[in-house]
Amino acid sequence: MKTLLKLFAAGLLSVGLANATPHSIDKGHSDVGFSVKHLMITNVKGKFSDYDAKIDFDYKNKTFNALEATIKATSINTGIEKRDNHLRSDDFFAADKFPEITFKMKSYKADGDEGVMTGDLTMRGVTKEVKLEVDDIATVKDFKGNNRVGFTLEGEVNRMDYGLKWNKALEFGGVAVSENVKLIIEVSAVEK
After folding, report:
1. CA dist 38 → 2, 41, 97, 140, 167 (Å)
2. Mind listing the pLDDT tens digit for each residue in 54-78?
């Protein structure tokens, strides 16, 4: 009986993976960004320019079978060099000690052209489970005849959970940098 159950499970897995196709990110049409409240009044936006991901997308069922991403912490860019250097320092990412930020999908729950992706996000050596809203999933055949998928990932993390604890109290109340950071990731990926 156990052998029969193992064969059945293996059969289901192989059917699910048969529709999955590996993709590579088109960095010219993708963006790994974030937004954080500064001085309690404005949002500072930034992005990472050095990243890569392994994506297995199922076109037939419009679902993700796998997504693993790696971001180089030193590639942070907010448009101000002094601030970027501070973000790379031990006060924030400690990029010399922890050069990579990683995400590994654990599950995906589809709902039409959107869904929820759950996975492990690791920064500064700390791993926490996060949920990312997946929106605007679209597929197309590009000018060269390649299959492409595009989608948006959005979520929020508390930077304190990952050891990014630097802050300053403001004399009128509040703090210099919010604890909550919004993640906004736009992806265009090409079938390999």
Report:
1. 58, 6, 26, 38, 11
2. 999 999 888 999 999 999 999 999 9
